[in-house]
Design brief:
single chain; 2 domains; five-stranded parallel sheet; eight-stranded mixed sheet; alpha/beta; about 15% strand; about 425 residues; Rossmann fold
Length: about 425
């Protein structure tokens, strides 16, 4: 055991280690709260000065995280900054930044590499660096390791390199950062031990694996598994719809089987930062090995087409009522990517809004979790959430239930909307003005 590793273990055991988390978003913020909760001093680093200012004032900008938790953390050892030079104060540096796709549906790991480039001048002996961002197998070794070694550090002796994929599920009350098992892979056995030691202080069950590449593949498998099964049930929905069968009734009945079946539910498309994106990371990397991931790409094709299928159902439903989509007033119910959160990343609702608008519809939305349509990298509507009332609903030719938040008044919607396009199976009964999509 090197001197640096011994000192690191001692600091972790005594909770004198300072934790630096880069990226104060849906992954980094809950992780900060958990490290703070058990007694570590935490330094949060983010390039967004607005986020940093809010955090230092004890304010939250994520709906399911209470501002009181942030305020409490600022009084017990948490501080946020935009100054990357302060990273040298941290013993553990945990990178939680986005890994989107570019316009060619290829991995964009520029947030990861730019973060590492910003940290590199301030690295010192004895630090652990852990990447949590979802990415393709090989990223940690091919992108982070060279940037560390070119500074003269030896991995496993001077600096400890780890990959540990995030497993947050925003808005899910049944699982917390503490209770979700954590996979940890290291660049060497000592790195793995270091990573396991630090995460074991805040996570109930840590799962060490043999390498960073294995840990990276674990995350992809988890999300590809969901993407493929959602693709299957979306395709089943289209078939069932043509046959006049309610797919949600089918799923509910099939789920009574106590073995061999896991219920997945169809929708208007895939949303969130992981499931719509992660499969493309593996398909891209697989081409380097001369492989073509046909099964995964087929599921992606089905899921990607779902917003267009919903729009087609909307057009048909309006036509049957003597209305053209062009010129119709359409209200989108829910624009977050899933219910009961304010997370807009890759939300299919946004694509639905864009397609409907491009075909001439006048589009508005209602979502109390998103009172004002946020600035996004690729999408923007100059809109605010409209009030949901009987009077408001009556002014729209069609409402599209895209995200089924629990706080919607579903009876109010059913009794006052002229036409409902239900993409989430919230209304199981048969009514003439409710179209299953």
């Amino acid at each position: 055991m090197s001197r640096a590793s011994k000192e690191f273990f001692d600091k972790v055991k005594s909770k004198e280690a300072v934790i630096g988390i880069i990226g104060m978003g849906y992954v980094g913020l809950p992780l900060m709260l958990r490290f703070n909760e058990v007694g570590f001093k935490v330094l949060g680093i983010d390039i967004d000065s607005d986020k940093v200012n809010k955090l230092n004032k004890g304010e939250s900008y994520i709906a399911h995280i209470d501002g009181e938790e942030i305020l409490k953390s600022t009084k017990t050892g948490f501080e946020a900054t935009t100054d990357f030079s302060r990273s040298k104060e941290a013993d553990a540096l945990i990178i939680c930044v986005p890994t989107p796709l570019n316009k060619y549906r290829e991995p964009d790991i520029s947030f990861v590499t730019k973060t590492m480039d910003a940290l590199a001048p301030h690295l010192r002996n004895g630090q652990m660096i852990s990447l949590e961002s979802t990415t393709y197998p090989g990223t940690t070794e091919e992108e982070l390791r060279p940037r560390i070694e070119e500074r003269g550090f030896k991995i496993g002796e001077d600096i400890f390199l780890v990959y540990s994929p995030e497993r947050e599920d925003p808005g899910n009350p049944n699982f917390t950062t503490r209770t979700i098992p954590k996979v940890v892979g290291g660049s060497c056995p000592t790195c793995k031990e270091i990573g396991t030691a630090i995460y074991s202080t805040v996570i109930d069950h840590v799962v060490p694996v043999s390498s960073t590449e294995t840990a990276e593949m674990v995350k992809l498998l988890e999300n590809i598994h969901r993407a493929v099964n959602i693709g299957l049930v979306n395709e089943m929905k289209i078939v069932a719809d043509r046959m006049g069968i309610n797919i949600h009734e089918v799923i509910k009945a099939a789920a009574t089987k106590p073995f061999g079946f896991t219920a997945y539910y169809p929708g208007p498309g895939l949303g969130g930062h992981c499931i719509p994106i992660d499969p493309f990371y593996l398909t891209w990397k697989a081409r380097e090995y001369g492989l073509h991931t046909r099964f995964i790409e087929l599921a992606g094709e089905v899921n990607t087409n779902m917003p267009h299928w919903v729009v087609a159902k909307t057009v048909d439903a309006l036509n049957e009522r003597g209305k053209a989509l062009k010129g119709s007033r359409v209200l989108m119910l829910g624009i977050a990517y899933k219910k009961n959160v304010d997370d807009m990343r890759e939300s299919p609702s946004v694509e639905l809004m864009e397609i409907l608008q491009s075909k001439g519809a006048e589009v508005h939305y209602h979502d109390t979790y998103v009172p004002v349509f946020p600035k996004m990298r690729e999408h923007h509507f100059n809109l605010s959430s409209v009030e949901l009332s009987s009077e408001t609903l009556n002014t729209y030719d069609c409402v599209v239930l895209a995200t089924d938040h629990d706080n919607f008044d579903y009876d109010l919607i059913k009794n006052n909307a002229k036409l409902i396009i239900d993409t989430r199976g919230r209304y199981l009964e048969h009514e003439e003005h409710i179209i299953k999509a």
